[in-house]
């Protein structure tokens, strides 16, 4: 089965042994970050460093100045953690080692954009802005994300791309030193805390026949038992917000995410050579937000060539895609293989077999650059076993 490992350019650049080491794992592909959010990353084998601090969301190559000239919203270049065309340098080394290289592009997740242009951020029902979460209903944000997708995805030599955060982002996010776990929030409360009330979203609610101020008040009222700790742990969105408002918000947000996904995929295909593969990181529950965008499985598989589905801890999210898929679609099961990040490399073979039984036809391994030598040795053994 085709298997790809995630990598950052800084895992490869400056380490002459990195590409051969990755190829030796038994993977056929690398999904290499071309546009990524801020992070602090371990590089346990690099000869020059052990920690890389990416201070803000950035493209990891030199952006096309002609494309972005005169535009207020544009991608940020990386600083010293990925100077010049770090992506291109890493991609060339990996290709020379016999690996197929696909780009990894993070879209609606950008704290620097929110800090410098706060009007672009999601605004919750209490008026709090989420600087890490650009609102995908805003035309200027959508234009940025679609053009970023086209540019970052189609780096020279890439055979395909994986678009992450191609949909709504909300509350659920490891933002700096997170301190939001004092009140446990279930899916419904997460959804309510992720509803946006910026001007563009307000217009969207009005088009649905909903008064935005009444909706925000309803959201705040619905969340009161959550803050008090008396809401049922299994309370659904409708139980908290009511059927009518739930339907209206879901319809608006689903249509907004769908049209962004359609536009981003179309832009990538227009810029890419023939046969270029476009996958989305996805969650089959449409109301979910975050890195794995909530989607309608049938719709997204009619738009993209397939999906990458989070499967660490269980592969059940594969089932809705497998049951509504299109013949030939890629259904890639994504497993964390770093024990320190909650992964289980020791059960990779068994986990992969279960994923195949649920419809997976490819594997993704998160993350070959972050894993210890011991974790990588276990992964290599699993990949060298019976197919």
Descriptors for this entry?
single chain, 387 residues, alpha/beta, eight-stranded parallel β-barrel, two-stranded antiparallel ribbon, 14 helices, 37% helix, globular
Number of helices: 14
Largest sheet: 8 strands, parallel, barrel
Q: Into which percentage range does the β-strand content fall?
A: 15-25%
Low-confidence stretches: none
Query: Could you tell me the mean pLDDT?
Result: 95
**How would you classify the helix and strand content by structural class?**
alpha/beta
Mind telling me the C-alpha Rg? Answer: 21 Å
Number of strands: 14
Report the end-to-end length measured between terminal Cα atoms: 7 Å
For the biggest β-sheet, the strand order reads: 1-2-6-9-10-12-13-14
Helix content: 25-40%
Shape: globular
One letter per element, helices H and strands E, the order comes to: EHEEEEHHEHEEHEHHHHHEEHEHEHEH
Describe this structure in words.
The structure is a single chain. The chain is of the alpha/beta class. It has 14 helices and 14 strands. It has helices at residues 18-23, 65-68, 86-96, 111-116, 139-153, 187-194, 199-207, 212-228, 237-241, 243-271, 297-303, 318-324, 348-357, 373-383; strands at 2-7, 29-36, 39-42, 51-54, 58-59, 100-106, 121-123, 129-134, 160-164, 277-283, 293-294, 306-310, 330-336, 362-366. The strands form three sheets. The chain has an eight-stranded parallel barrel with strand order 1-2-6-9-10-12-13-14, surrounded by six helices. A two-stranded antiparallel ribbon has the order 3-4. α1 links the parallel β1 and β2 (29-36). α5 (139-153) packs parallel to α10. The longest helix has 29 residues, at 243-271. The mean pLDDT is 95.
């Amino acid at each position: 089965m085709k298997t790809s490992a995630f990598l950052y350019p800084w895992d490869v650049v400056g380490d002459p042994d990195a590409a051969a080491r990755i190829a030796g794992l038994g993977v056929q592909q690398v999904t290499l970050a071309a546009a990524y959010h801020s992070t602090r990353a371990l590089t346990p084998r690099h000869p020059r460093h052990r920690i890389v601090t990416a201070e803000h969301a950035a493209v990891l190559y030199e952006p096309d100045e002609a494309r972005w000239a005169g535009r207020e919203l544009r991608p940020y270049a990386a600083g010293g953690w990925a100077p010049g065309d770090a992506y291109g340098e890493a991609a060339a080394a990996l290709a020379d080692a016999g690996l197929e290289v696909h780009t990894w592009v993070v879209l609606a997740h950008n704290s620097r954009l929110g800090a410098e242009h706060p009007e672009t951020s999601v605004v919750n029902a209490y008026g709090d802005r989420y600087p890490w979460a650009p609102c995908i209903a805003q035309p200027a944000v959508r234009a940025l994300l679609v053009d970023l997708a086209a540019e970052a995805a189609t780096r020279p030599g890439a055979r395909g791309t994986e678009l992450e955060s191609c949909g709504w982002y909300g509350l659920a996010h490891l933002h700096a030193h997170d301190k939001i776990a004092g009140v446990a929030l279930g899916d419904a409360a997460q959804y309510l805390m992720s509803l946006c009330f910026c001007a563009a979203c307000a217009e969207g609610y009005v088009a649905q026949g909903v008064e935005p101020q009444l909706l925000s008040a309803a959201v705040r009222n619905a969340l009161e038992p959550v803050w008090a700790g008396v809401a049922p742990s299994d309370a659904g969105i409708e139980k908290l917000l009511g059927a009518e408002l739930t339907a209206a918000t879901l319809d608006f947000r689903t249509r907004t995410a769908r049209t962004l996904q359609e536009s981003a995929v179309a832009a990538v295909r227009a810029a890419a050579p023939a046969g270029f593969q476009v996958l989305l990181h996805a969650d089959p529950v449409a109301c979910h937000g975050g890195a794995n965008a909530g989607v309608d499985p049938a719709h997204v598989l009619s738009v993209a060539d397939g999906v990458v589905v989070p499967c660490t801890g269980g592969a059940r999210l594969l089932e809705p895609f497998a049951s509504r898929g299109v013949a030939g679609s890629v259904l890639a099961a994504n497993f964390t293989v770093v024990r320190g990040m909650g992964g289980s490399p020791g059960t990779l073979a068994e986990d992969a077999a279960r994923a195949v039984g649920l419809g997976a036809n490819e594997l993704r391994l998160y993350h070959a650059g972050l894993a210890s030598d011991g974790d990588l040795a276990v992964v290599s053994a699993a990949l060298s076993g019976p197919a």
